[in-house]
Design goal:
By secondary structure, the protein is α/β, with parallel strands linked by helices. Helices cover about 45% and strands about 15% of the residues. α4 links the parallel β2 and β3. The structure holds ligand V47.
Amino acid sequence: MRSAAFNAISDKVRAGERLTAGDALALFEEPDLLALGALANEVREQKHGDRAYFNRNARLEVTNVCYASCNFCSFAKLEEGMPGAVTLTVPRAIEALRSKVDEHTTEVHVVNGLHPGLPFEYYEELLRALASAFPHAHRKCFTAVEIHFFAQHYRMSVRQVLERLIAAGLQSLPGGGAEIFHPEVRTRIAHDKATGDEWIAVHRESHALGLMTNATMLYGHIETFAHRVDHLLRLRELQDESLKLGKGRLQAFIPLAFHPDGNGMQKLPGTTGVDDLRTLAVSRLVLDNVEHLKAYWVSSTPKVAQIGLSFGADDVDGTIVSETIYSAANKKAPEGLTVDDLVRLIREAGRIPIERDTLYNVVAEHPRAALEGQFKVRERLQGRHLQVVS
Ligand code: V47
C-alpha cells in the first residue's frame, strides 16, 4: 500500500534534506496515511518532544462589514445597514471583550472585514484601548489582507501602516487571509482583496519590523494538491528570507479546513478527517523552517485536532472565547473550550500540555497523564460498558 516514492522521501527527511515540490505532491498522494503520519510525527517529536501547546485567548471581530466578496466567507456583510451587519464602536468593542477576557487571558486576537467607511484612527484608538483595558493580553490583530487594505484605502505604504499600528500597540499579526496564494484559485475564491504576493509582502515587511506572524492555508474547496504545495513552498521561501534577516518570522502554520455552510461554495462537501490529518502531516514535513504547526480545533473539530497531535501538530490553538467567522460557516462548532477541556484532550493524546503565551513563552506546564490515571480511565470506561451490557 505504501508508494515507491515514500521510502526515498523518508530517507531525505531523516537526513535533514529539504523536500522538493515533487516530494510534497507525492506525500499528498501517499496512500499509506499512517506511514505519512508517523514520518511527520518523527519530525514533530524531534522539534518538540511530547510537548503540546495551547493558550488562553479571546477573539473579537469589531466589524463584519467587508467590501470584498470572497466565495468561501459566511461572515461578511457587504454594506453597513444590511441585515446582520455589525460595527462596534471602540468602547463597545472593549465592553464585548470584558466578558471574554479574565486575568489569565494572554492574547486577544482581533480580525475584521474590510470596512470602507471607518477612519484609520479607529484602529489606532482600538489598539490603545485594548492595551489600556487588558495590558496583560498580547494584541495579535489584523490579517495581512486588512493591512494591505489599510495601505490602499488610507493612501499609505504598508510600512507606514505597520509603524503606526505598532506605535498604537500592535504586537503581532495573525495568519488569516492567506487562503490559497496561487492565482488560478485565488482569482476564483477571493478576487477583490490582496493577492498572494501582496499577502506575502505584508508579512515580509512585518518581519523586517521585528513582528512575529502566523500563516494559514484554507484548503478543501476548489484547489488541487499542486496548489497546496505551491502555497507551502511560497511560505517556506518567505521564512528563509526572514530567518536570514533575523528579526521577525513566521511562528506557526495553521491549515484551515473549508466549511461550506452559508457561503458561495455551499455545494462543496467540506473536508474529511483523512484530508485534515494528511494536510497536517505534509505541512509538517514541507515547512521545515517553521517551528510550530497548529491543529486548529475550531476548523478540524477537537477530536481530529487531538489525533493531529500525532500527525505533526504540536499546538491546538486556544480556548478561543468566542469567534464568529467559523461559527457562521459551521453551525455545529463549539464556541470555546475550557483549559480543562484542552488539558484533557492533550493528555489523552499522550502529550504534555503546555500553556503558552502568543510568543511561545511557557506560562504553565501541566503534568502528563499518569499511567495510573490512564488505567483509571480504562476502568471507568469498562465499568460504563459493563453497565450498558448488563
Ligand atoms: O482568513 C473564512 C478562514 C480565517 C471560512 O493566526 C474560513 O493564530 C473555513 O485566520 N471555512 C480566519 N475557513 C481564521 C484565522 C486563524 C485561525 C486560527 C488561528 C490563527 C492564528 C488564525 O478563516 C480567514 C479565512 O481563511 N475562513 N471562512 C470558511 N467558510
